Amino acid sequence: MRTRLVTINQSSMSRDQAEATVDRYLDLQADEAPEARKRHYDTLVDNFYDLVTDFYEFGWGSSFHFAPRFVGESFDASLARHEYYLASALGLRQGMKVLDVGCGVGGPMRAIARFSGADITGITINEYQVKRGTAHNEKAGLANQCRLQRADFLDIPFDEGSFARAFAIESTCHAPDKVDVFREVFRVLEPGGAFVGYEWCLTGAYDAANPEHQRIKRGIEEGNGLPELAYCKEVLDALKQAGFELVSSHDKALEADVSTPWYQPLTGKGTLSMASLRSSTPGRWVTDKLVGVLETVKLAPPGTGKVSRMLNKTADALVRGGELGIFTPMFFFHVRKP
Hints:
The chain has 12 helices and 8 strands. By secondary structure, it is an alpha/beta fold. Helix 1 packs across helix 3 (41-60), helix 7 packs across helix 9 (232-241) and helix 11 runs antiparallel to helix 12. The radius of gyration is 19 Å and the shape is globular.
């Protein structure tokens, strides 16, 4: 096991910088007022992915998202099917110019490019993810078809009408203002262009007056670099305000078999792949203990243990939110630019 896989990104940060990044992120998330987190969302999200990208790749692979899963279906197959669904909904074809809004390290981008033949540009606010994703693209032989660029999705650095299609997989939940990010996507799409995505949302079952629901919501926000979770309806309203026409929307989390809910990989129950085993409750416990040892002997930078514990805590919040049905990580939307 390589140390890099379970530590904070060390490629561009010194040990002191790593510890400072941990503390800065935790300080930003400690503010209970969503408006404060929204004001500093760019620092919040950038710091978050500096801290967690290696953990995510170790525990989840290069596709940082959930997926509805069928009985007998492997973890990796469910992720790929989820990605291909987006490609099919967009009607992607060979050479079509596509924007991946909040691409992470590009796992879905590469899968969708192979599946459809489309030419995909991904943007992420985090430079470390650009480096990781670019290396993955080159290794996969897709450097001419897939590329990553550092950019803020509230200020997308492309001309109006640059892309025929766009997709966002569990990324625009990081936006401090959804209307603003959707307006930018609208601007860079050509007329008639389609935009699809999966959004992290509170469902209608969420009760803002319920203390347990409140704790779960904050746990998900704190451990995932989110300014504030929105309701599904708020996402649709923001898309319409941005100028899009709604084609369809639904909660894909409800499509999973009852015995294989979307949060199952975080619990350690059922059939597991190596990746989902590392993300499961026992796998996360082992990783946390290993990280503690690595930090003690100075093979991991200071603060790595804090990040590991934060991710474990938020995984528990995600599971509980899923069990209660008050949260979904895959509210699907399909909209069109007139």
